[in-house]
Write a structure and sequence with these properties.
Elements (H helix, E strand, L loop, with lengths): L2 H8 L5 E2 L2 E2 L1 E3 L2 E3 L6 E5 L6 E6 L3 H20 L2 H17 L1 H12 L3 H22 L5 E4 L10 E9 L2 E5 L7 H12 L3 E5 L5 H13 L7 E4 L3 H9 L6 E5 L2 H11 L4 E4 L5 E4 L5 H13 L11 E5 L3 H13 L18 H16 L3 E4 L3 E2 L2 E2 L2 E4 L16 E7 L2 H9 L3 E2 L1 E5 L3 H10 L4 E4 L12 E2 L1 E2 L2 E2 L1 E2 L1 H7 L1 E9 L9
Parallel strand pairs: 2-6, 9-10, 9-12, 10-11, 12-13, 14-15, 14-22, 15-20, 19-20, 22-23
Antiparallel strand pairs: 1-2, 3-4, 5-6, 7-8, 8-28, 13-26, 16-19, 17-18, 21-25, 24-27
Helix pairs in contact: 3-5, 3-7, 4-5, 4-7, 5-6, 6-15, 10-11
GO molecular function, one term: glyceraldehyde-3-phosphate dehydrogenase (NADP+) (non-phosphorylating) activity
InterPro entries: Ald_DH/histidinol_DH (IPR016161), Ald_DH_C (IPR016163), Ald_DH_CS_GLU (IPR029510), Ald_DH_N (IPR016162), Aldehyde_DH_dom (IPR015590), ALDH-related_metabolic_enz (IPR051020)
EC number: 1.2.1.9
Length: about 500
């Protein structure tokens, strides 16, 4: 091991006691007062990956109190200084991208190439947020701009932080989607409490450590670990929470919404993203985008293509091209940069398998056959899927793609809109006017034209309709979501001034 590698491996040594990772509270890496820890296993061979703290309610209460105290001073820190801390954190991420990527490979079976890309993309996101945050300026309003009013009032309008932001990232992007919450919160003067995912906890801790090592004041960035089933309600209903930014499953999100009361929420939940393929499209382009969109990271993405709505008469040709593309995908170990790796756990694999068996029993054509070894599922494609099959409506979050054949674009839009989810959708056509009309009709937060669904670039708005979420993400939109408008009105005395 050379010196530079050794130095980088020691960068985050303070996070651990032996081989057990600590949690971050008020600028210190601590062990839980519960005396308990949790262990993760790798999705691909079920060997132990990491061990970390199982935080108690008392631990969490202390974290929130520290975050609340620290936020007042942080909000008074000059904006340029806050931006400087963010840039330093981005540098630390890039310098240690290989170590952090290793955690992503072990914890969530993301292939190494994608894992490194996530870390670098996160550093880019943080730097962009630092720049965009310094441009979030207020405005001046005058009373006489409203009909019938005199010029006797000046209104200074500016944005102020909400307070303590609870950031809850998902397992599939525990670094990037955590940073998409933390960076906007920090640049706007909020403090944060990160609740790491149970699978992906160490990866998220690395992100928290990057801000800590960048010199962010104690208590401004905190990170707790533990089972959501044990501490989730205590976290989300804590009286010192001023905003919750959550990315996760629909059931979890809706449960939080019902319990938290009148605090701002930023929620990105599940999706049943439809790809509508029209007869006039470039079929090679559509098939390539569908294969990539449906199977990247084993389809464990909210923006994965979850269903194809093929408008006849192109069904046979489209299916052939999709099948040809799927056959080129590699299946195996994430360290070998396989396209398809193990899904996150046995429970997920079992659920996906139940959808496969239902479609198979009800007569769908299994044009890419299902195969399973532990949590590793081979990419599966079903043609001639019908409405009575669960796969037509439920989100598998795994490498299974249903194809439904329909007679018209109108029928495809109507079918897509019947889903209770509305995150993204896409349409493939060479008629731009038709694409715009379909986009107008689809009840989804984003419609991609001649491209697969995607969250990025990270400064684009990202939001869901219906059960897919609340509010918008994307750098600028998160800056707005994590601040509130405050106005100061200056009343001017009405006096006559002599004119010289």
């Amino acid at each position: 091991m050379n010196n530079s590698t050794h130095t980088k491996s020691d960068t985050f040594a303070v996070m651990k006691q032996g081989n057990v990772f600590k949690f971050l509270s008020n600028g210190e890496w601590r062990t839980s007062g519960s005396g308990k820890t949790m262990k993760e296993v790798t999705p691909y061979d079920n060997t132990e990956a990491y061990e970390f703290q199982s935080c108690s309610q008392q631990d969490i209460d202390e974290v929130f109190k520290a975050a609340n105290r620290a936020q007042r001073g942080w909000a008074k820190t000059p904006l340029w200084k806050r931006a400087e801390y963010l840039r330093k954190a981005a540098v630390i991420l890039r310098e240690n991208k290989d170590e952090i990527a290793t955690a992503l490979v072990k914890e969530i079976a993301k292939n190494r190439k994608s894992a490194v890309s996530e870390v670098v993309r996160t550093a880019d996101l943080i730097e962009y947020t630092a720049e965009e945050g310094t441009r979030l300026v207020g405005k001046l309003m005058t009373s006489d701009s409203f009909p019938g009013q005199k010029r006797d009032k000046l209104c200074l309008v500016h944005r102020v932080p909400l307070g303590v932001i609870l950031c809850i990232p998902p397992f599939n992007y525990p670094v990037n989607l955590c940073a998409s919450k933390v960076a906007p919160a920090l640049i706007t003067g909020n403090s944060v409490v990160i609740k790491t995912p149970s699978q992906g906890a160490v990866s998220a801790l690395y992100l928290a450590a990057s801000f800590h090592l960048a010199g962010v004041p104690a208590g401004v960035v905190n990170a707790v670990t533990g089972k959501g089933s044990e501490i989730g309600d205590f976290l989300t209903t804590h009286p010192l929470v001023n905003c919750i930014s959550l990315t996760g499953g629909g059931t979890t999100g809706m449960s939080v919404c019902k319990k938290v009361g009148m605090i701002p929420l930023q929620m990105e939940l599940g999706g049943k993203d439809a790809a509508i393929v029209l007869p006039d499209c470039d079929l090679d382009l559509a098939a390539k985008a569908i294969v990539s969109g449906a199977f990247s990271y084993s389809a464990q993405r909210c923006t994965a293509v979850k269903i194809v709505l093929a408008v006849e008469p192109i069904g046979d040709e489209l299916v052939k091209k999709v099948v040809d593309g799927v056959k080129k995908l590699t299946v195996g170990h994430p360290e070998e940069n396989a396209d398809i790796t193990a899904v996150i756990n046995k429970s997920s694999a079992d659920y996906i398998e139940s959808l496969v068996f239902d479609a198979r029993q009800k007569g769908a054509s299994e044009v890419c056959p299902y195969k399973r070894e532990g949590n590793l599922l081979w990419p599966t494609v079903f043609d001639h899927v019908r409405e009575d099959m669960k796969i037509a409506w439920e989100e598998p979050f795994g490498p299974v793609l249903p194809i439904i054949r329909l007679k018209s674009a109108e029928e495809a839009v109507e079918f897509a809109n019947r889903s209770t989810m509305g995150l993204q959708g896409c349409v493939f056509t060479n008629d731009i006017e038709k694409a715009i009309h379909i986009s107008d009709e689809l009840s989804t937060g984003t419609v991609q034209v001649n491209g697969q669904p995607a969250r990025g670039p990270d400064h684009f708005p990202f939001q869901g309709f219906k059960d897919s979420g609340l509010g918008s993400q994307g750098v600028y939109f998160s800056l707005e979501a994590m601040t509130k408008i405050k106005s100061t009105v200056i009343n001017l005395r009405q006096e006559s001034f002599p004119m010289n």
